[in-house]
Specification:
The protein contains six helices and 22 strands. It is mostly beta strands. Strands 5-6-7-8-9-12-13-14-15-16-17-18-19-20-21-22 form a 16-stranded antiparallel sheet. The relative contact order is 0.12.
Length: 498
């Protein structure tokens, strides 16, 4: 969980950009992109059935507003290309979908596609793509909570500033105009870390193959060495670093279609822990009282992303599958083989009523005991349940089913005018949803010694919430949730999409 605090208004504006998880701001200027009121006698998409069955030929595409982003990168994110033919009946919906694809890149605050110069005799048109680019450069101060979520830090850790990180992140979301992302960071406080990450989505002419290089080194004076009663147990030494981690990653991506992603990666890990942790507090931290852990891992993942809006989807679906092998035979410190799956379904019943459904699972194909820190299940990443924010559940396997019925209470765009120095953010879209949440989950942990009462049993949680969506991909959730332990409380979750 991350909180970015910017000290001046311009940096505040930059905070409110970035990438998503994403319905529209102005992108749906969804003012019928197939209809340009200034085109006079242009086709109005209200013709006879016979006209609608005809195809239209895309003669050319003009891109406007892309001061930084290269034109070919923008065209890559669209369903239509010069030379394509499409049924007239499908034109408006296809242009709207291409607008959403452009917005989901996180590169733009507005995207609008219209046609012009309709040649009625041959059904030939020219498309005009207008974009307004986001703020791409983020050299901002960093303030980060070390705990899993805001409530753990606020309540259980009593808002301790020993458990925060501070430093500087330099992030460029469009480093060379090719949608490439460069991140250089240094942080101190609870964790001392230095990281470098560069993602180039396309390295070949067809724009289907991408490259990722990632390195990070971290040290901590405090270690989560065990889980007891489904709570994290910590040990701290203010004089010495107890835990250090280094990893370097090289990955390639293959994107044969707009909605389909394949990723292949190799990662090298080297981790060390203080002998007090390995010999006394938890001999299973790295297993067998080991004080160091070194291994290579290989990972393949497949993603099919058909959501309308990544940050807060209201229609479509999302599927991910990954297979990860930890330990490739060069070292003997790790031997794991794990499958991760996630499927999200979003249904729009009406302009106001929406439904979100999620099913997710982690399955360990290696049934031997895994090191403590590599045995995470519920309470981290995508595998969470409403009402269990204060708990974690470790295990070889986990399954979750989550549902959220949502009702749109508010949808408006505010003109902030010249009080915002960055022009791209003077129009602030804001949406508000009321949500009713209902979750179930189960964690299988055959090696739990009986210290954790939530393992190996069915869990249920739910509640109500207010979801705020700002600038298309910034989501703030204020929720009252409870669980089958008859515990309840107010919880804050947010995704800034940076």
């Amino acid at each position: 969980m991350r909180v970015i605090i910017c000290s001046i208004l311009c940096l505040f504006c930059s905070l409110l950009s970035g990438q998503s998880e994403y319905e529209n701001v102005q992108h749906s200027a969804l003012q019928a992109p197939g209809y340009n009121k200034n085109q006079g006698d242009n086709f109005q998409l209200r013709s006879s059935d016979e006209d609608l069955r005809q195809d239209v030929y895309i003669d050319s595409i003009i891109v406007l507003g892309n001061a930084k982003t290269r034109e070919r990168i923008i065209l890559r994110e669209m369903d239509l290309q010069p030379g394509d033919q499409i049924a007239i009946a499908d034109l408006t919906a296809t242009l709207q979908q291409s607008e959403r694809y452009l917005m989901n890149t996180g590169m733009f605050t507005r995207a609008n596609i219209r046609f012009k110069d309709w040649e009625g005799g041959v059904n030939k048109i020219q498309l005009v793509v207008e974009v307004e680019e986001s703020w791409y450069l983020f050299p901002v101060p960093l303030f980060e909570l070390a705990d899993r979520n805001f409530n753990v830090w606020w309540v259980e850790q009593r808002r301790s500033f020993q458990r925060v990180n501070y430093g500087m992140d330099f992030t460029s979301l469009n480093f060379t105009g090719r949608m490439d992302r460069l991140k250089i960071g240094a942080k101190f406080g609870y964790t001392r870390s230095f990281n470098l990450r560069y993602l180039l989505p396309y390295i070949n002419k067809k724009q289907t193959i991408g490259l990722l290089v990632n390195m990070k080194y971290s040290q901590n004076r405090e270690v989560n060495y065990a889980t007891i009663q489904n709570k994290q147990e910590f040990f701290r030494d203010d004089e010495n670093f107890l835990y250090s981690r280094f990893f370097s990653e090289l990955a390639f991506s293959y994107r044969p279609a707009i909605k389909i992603f394949h990723n292949f990666g190799i990662t090298y890990h080297k981790n060390e822990v203080d002998d007090l942790i390995a010999n006394e507090l938890n001999p299973d931290f790295f297993l067998n009282q080991k004080e160091a852990q070194q291994y290579f891992s290989a990972r393949y993942s497949f993603i099919y992303d058909n959501r309308d809006i990544r940050a807060y989807a209201t229609n479509g679906n999302y599927l991910s599958f990954s297979l990860e092998k930890d330990g490739l035979g060069l070292f003997s410190d790790r031997d794991g083989l794990t499958v991760y799956t996630l499927f999200d379904k979003y249904v729009s019943f009406s302009p106001k009523w929406k439904m979100a459904l999620r099913t997710g699972a982690k399955v360990s194909l290696k049934r031997t005991q895994q090191p403590y820190n590599d045995n995470r299940a519920l309470g981290f990443g995508q595998y969470t349940l409403h009402g269990y924010e204060y708990y974690i559940v470790d295990g070889l396997d986990v399954g979750v089913i989550r549902s959220s019925l949502r009702y749109k209470l508010f949808d408006k765009k505010f003109d902030l005018g010249r009080m915002i120095p960055v022009k791209a953010y003077r129009q602030m879209p804001l949406k508000l949803y009321l949500s009713l949440n209902n979750d179930v989950g189960y964690v299988n942990d055959p090696y739990d010694p009986g210290q954790n009462f939530l393992n190996n049993r069915l869990l249920w949680g739910g509640g109500i919430g207010l979801d705020f969506i700002v600038f298309y991909d910034k989501v703030f959730r204020f929720e009252y949730s409870f669980n089958d332990l008859k515990e309840g409380g107010l919880f804050l979750h947010f995704n800034l999409g940076i």
